[in-house]
Structure formats: C-alpha cells, structure tokens
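Supplementary material to the annual report.
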Amino acid sequence: MKNVIHAKCVRCGKTYEATPNLTTCACGGILDVVYDYDYVKKTLTKEKLAARPRTMWRCRELLPVEETTPDTPLRVGWSPLYEAQRLGAQLGLGRLWIKDDGQNPTASLKDRASAMAVAKAQEAGARIIACSSTGNAASSLAGNAAAAGLRSFIFVPERAPKGKVAQLMTFGANVISVQGNYEETFALSKKAIDKWGWYNRNAAINPYLSEGKKTVSLEIAEQLNWQMPDYLAISVGDGCTIAGVWKGLKDLYAIGFIDSLPRLISVQAEGCHPINRAIAENQPWQPMEENTLADSIAVGVPRNADKALMAIRESNGIVVNVTDEEIMAAQKLLGTTCGVFGEPAGVTGTAGVKKLCAQGVLGAQDTVVSVVTGNGLKDVANAIRFCGEPMKLPNDLDLLIEAFERRGLKTE
Amino acid sequence: MKNVIHAKCVRCGKTYEATPNLTTCACGGILDVVYDYDYVKKTLTKEKLAARPRTMWRCRELLPVEETTPDTPLRVGWSPLYEAQRLGAQLGLGRLWIKDDGQNPTASLKDRASAMAVAKAQEAGARIIACSSTGNAASSLAGNAAAAGLRSFIFVPERAPKGKVAQLMTFGANVISVQGNYEETFALSKKAIDKWGWYNRNAAINPYLSEGKKTVSLEIAEQLNWQMPDYLAISVGDGCTIAGVWKGLKDLYAIGFIDSLPRLISVQAEGCHPINRAIAENQPWQPMEENTLADSIAVGVPRNADKALMAIRESNGIVVNVTDEEIMAAQKLLGTTCGVFGEPAGVTGTAGVKKLCAQGVLGAQDTVVSVVTGNGLKDVANAIRFCGEPMKLPNDLDLLIEAFERRGLKTE
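Predicted assembly:
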C-alpha cells in the first residue's frame, strides 16, 4: 500500500507494518493506520474523485487496501445526505442535514466496516471470516461475506433477538448461539478464531474497521461540496464509529480538501454513557450498566474508548445523553419531518441535537450534520410500542367518519 | 408537459388531457400515458443522461411531470444491479443479474410509484394523499409524503406485517387497519377518497404510478449499458409493476436507446395467480383466493390486470407460479449467494427463474435480470420460520469442535 506508512499504537506509539492480519498492540492498545498524506495529495484531486463510482470505495487513496484488491460486491456507502429544512427550522437551527446510513445493503453504517473486513480478509488469503456480535456488525458481516463468496462464523449471545438471527441465517452464516452473556460469547469466538485462524472482524481488535467507517465523513464532506458544518452529531456505543468519523475528517483536512473541522457531538443513552461520562468528568472511562433500548449502542465496556475519547477531545466536542423516551421521540420526529426511519441507536444522534437546541447550546447560528446509523426496520417492536396502533375498522364509511371525529382528525 | 401527448384508455381508446388528477376512463378502463417520442428523441441523449443525479428522476423526458415540478426529496431509485455470477452458474444460466430494489428509502420498489404520486399531488395542489395497500405502497407513500410535507391517509388490510405498519406510524400517516381482505380495504379507501377529495395514489386508478415504476427498467437498461437481457423476471400481484416495467422498456425501444426487448417472466404465487392463470388458459382473468405468505403479491382481484396481461402478451412472456416453500428457498438462495435479503414477494421473481431453470425452460444460452422488489427486513417473521435455528452451545471449545464435526462443518 503506497498510501500507508504503518499502523501505530494509540497508547504506546509502537509502530507495525500494515499487514492485513493486524490486531492490537503488544501493550493492549488499539492500532491506528497512518497515511502518507504527501503521497495522497500528489495522487488525488477533487475532480478525479467526482468521476468515480458512488460507493465507499471511491476514495481509495485514503483507504488501507492494496490497489489490486477489488471493490467488495455489495453497494456500500454513498448514502443520501438530505437537507432537513423543516426539521432544522423546527429545532431553530441555521441549517441541518441528515445522513441516512440506514440506506446501506444490510441497512446500517456497519456495512462500511464489514466491507472493509471482507476486503482485508481477501488480501490475507482468508476464506473464512468471524466475529462475535449481537447486531449490525454480525448481519453486515454475514451479508458482505456472502456476496464476496467468503464463509462466516458468527457468535451471538443466546439473548440475541430472533430477527437478527434470522438475517444471519438467511445470509448463510454459521451462527453459534452461546449460552451465556456477551463476554462469554466473545471469549468463545476468540478461542475459535485462534484455533482455526479465521479472519477476525471483532471491532477494536481489527484496526481497519474504523477506516471503513470513516468513509461516512469522506462522503459528507464531498456531498456538502467540501464546506463543512459547524457540528457533526452521531450516536456512540463502542466508540469505533465516532473515531472513524473523526479520522475521515482529519484525513481530508490533512490533504487540504477541507479547511475547517466540525466539532463532534457525541450522543449516548442516559442508561449507558461511559464515554460521555469520561469527557464530562474529565476522568478515565469506567464501565457502566447497559440500560437502554437502543441496543446497538448499549455498550457498557467500550473497547474503542481510547480512540473515541481522543476524537471528541481533539474536536473540542460536545457530549450529551438522552433518555429512551427522547430517542423514540426523535425516531418519530425524523419519520414525520424527513421520511427517514431510523432504529433507536440510529436516531440517537438526532435526539442529542434536539436536546442541545432545547438547551440553547445550538441555535440559529449553527449548521449541523446528524448521522442516522441504522434502519428502523431492524427493530420494529420498539417502534410499534412507541408510535401507537392504527385505527381498526370494518369496511364502513360511517364508522370511519365517526372514528375521525372522535380523534379530531382533519380530513383536509 | 411538452413530452406527453395525452392519456389513453387501454380498453376503449378514448383520450384524455394529462391533468394531474387523472383517474380511470369513463368506460372503467385504465389510462396509459402517451409520449411524444419524436420530442423525446430530439431532447434526450445517452450522454446527457449519464451526467445526471442518480435517482428515478434522471430521465425526466420520459416521465409525466412538468419541467417545473421539483424532484421529490427522498433518494428513490438507482438501486444496485448486481451480476450474480455464483447464483447464475448454480442455476445453469448464461448470465444473471439481480436488481435489488429493496435498496430504496422505504425499502421497496413502490417508492418509485409513491414519489411519482407525491410529485403529481403537488402539481394538483393537493395537501393530502391517500391509498389502500397491502403494505409497501402504503409505507412508501407515507415516507415520501412526509419528506415532501404532505399528509397521508392509508388503508391497510389487517394482515399487513408489523414492519410495514411500524413504518407507517413512524412516518406520521393516518393509518386505518381494515378488518377484511385487500378488496374490502380498497373499497373503504375509495369511499373515503371520494368523500374527502384526497389525491388518489391507488395503483390501478392513478395512471402515473406505473410511469414511476417504469424507472426500474430505465435504470436496468442504462446499468447494462443498453444491452438488454433475454428475459426480465418479476413478481406480480396487482399487475401495476410488470406493466410499468414493460412501459419503460417500450419507451427506450421507441426512442432508439435499446434495440431489443426482453421477454417478461411473470411470477406469481401458487396460492394466488389470477394473472398467470389468465395467460396460461388464454381466458379473461377471474378472481382468486389469496393464499400465500408473500403478502405484497397476495392480490386476488388485480386491478391492473388489463395492463399486465397486455404487457406479458406483447413481450411474448412466460408465466410461472411458485409455492411458498419455493419462495422461501429463493430467499435463502439470494441471501447465501448474493448477500441480498428480500421479502417473500420480493424474491418471488427469482424463485420463478429458479423453477424455469429446473424445468429446462431457461438455460446456459439465456441471460436474465431478476428484480427483487422489497427488503427482507419488512417481514422478519416468515424468514425466522424458514431459515432454521443456530447451534446452541456453552462457552466451551471442545463442545464447539464436537458440534462442528457432528454437522460436518468445514472450518477452513
């Protein structure tokens, strides 16, 4: 990879050759891929970029893959960025954009990481790829691996929702439901990966995943014609996504494609916010309980905390926590004003923006991009619980008229 | 609309000015929009088209909207067309492509029709839009209307899957769940639309919807660089989609963008195939029971039968019916070989292709495009029933090894 110098531990600074099988540093720290920005500057122009296929692979010069590695088969990335005029006005913001990353092949931002994992697995000559996960990482890995003709082994805790398991089974993953909690699930996946030498897609172990995720901010910048907003809001669980978002922005700044960096808004659930607590109290992070319905960000022991905390601090970021009720209200708000249906964790970023507007932290002078990280169809049960039931009627116009009147529904 | 001459009844030939509020002919026949192909030929080139935004609105010259009507807000269309090499080889086909139209804002092909309805409602000055639907038309209308700032009233049969209802409620639609089948649902929606004068998005009433749907074949042609396949397979319920698909192909042929027309493959469920029965028996269509789990095509009284039958016959098409088991097997096959997760009705077209291959009707000499019309996340319950259970194990490597051996699972 001519564009990559090496991988460097974010904790001790030790460097490693950027081989496809990289995991963590000997010290236990997470590795970060370091690019040769001079080389990138020489080879990449905005004009070149504009002509390329609209997928996450369009900006190859800033991705840690060999030139000969093929794009993965599913169309990941280049999700729509909508200017949300009515919602922005309702919140009192200067301008607001919604990046709908639920519009990805398996319906979440995680497709970006999983497609990267598939590409690196192929570079490594692996034919099997594995991870432990309860949700979007698993389904995106299963889908992207299937499309590329790789096999997958996926370890889920027994409490994993049936719907997610169904998705995995449909993609033909070998699914192992582990009788125990997530820690035991992770442990068994580690033993199996060590024994059989499968390619490892466990987040926070594999340093390439956040490089895949960073493509979301490369796209936002390009879709905004390189004029950056004041803030970029995103939900935070494990920390890998917000770290990737920041990495992408810094990359673009380093090569001169953008001339300002937005401040990050890190939004977590009230019931589980170890990263935001660490920022707010300016202390090392401590584990927390996982009390939120936003399952994709219910991470009490965030394995990418180091990178996430660094990103929030470097960007002079803001942290905000939201209740489950605020999350579900944001889901409905995005649905009714933007036609965007996000899963609970997916809309948590927007819930945070709404709260900061109500608190007067954000206002008419501010421009904000809010990323929706997953599709609401992933968790229909919670949507139904909060948005209510339809009216139920027989085929009878008089009863319909009566029902409308009873509800005070305007018909024009 | 300089590109549109008029709308013409497919039954009696009577013509109507193409106003936004058009419904059906006085004789009860469905109207068809007639274009001035000479005008289109003069104004549209393949080069012009190539440079435009990748949405369903890119080919305005072939769409029945005023030049001043804005594109609708959600990014509808330009869904991925994947060449399915492994699946094609497995089925013994020359070449096979999968058009994944589940990759649309509300996760189905119906977004194309609903976005068109929203555009026409805006031209008509309407502020409320209504329809009856088994699900996808409804959720797509709710989402596209919400994004455009229109209100919606939506009538669904009580059997509509939960995922679709959750979408409707989240998008803020006024939802009426009708105790009865689709026919009764349609009847109540008609009474309500007549009473309150809402803009009518019912597929067989509004002649513009199939014009929206036809964008799927405009895209397929462009994505294949105007080299058409021998066959185009699609699931059929009401008949509006296959009619739209055919219209798009004929449009492109008329303006000289393609020089051959694929034969249509109309796939219906064994439990509900009134259109295919009419073709097979060369008789007028008759109502049928609605006995299939593929809810989106469980239409016993297809209101677009006239247009659909004409399309299948004109194309020298093939009809094939598949059982629910064949449908669910196709769902898994698409998942495992392509990483595409379609809803039951969405994969019915592919189930038909598979069956025709097994019967020797299709083979190594044939090229086929199969459209997946909706996302599997819309109906997780059926996927769960059919895709089997994961292995269940404690955190114990020896037991894992044993389980793999018992199942003959290869680990490399």
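The first strand of chain B starts at residue 4 and ends at 9.
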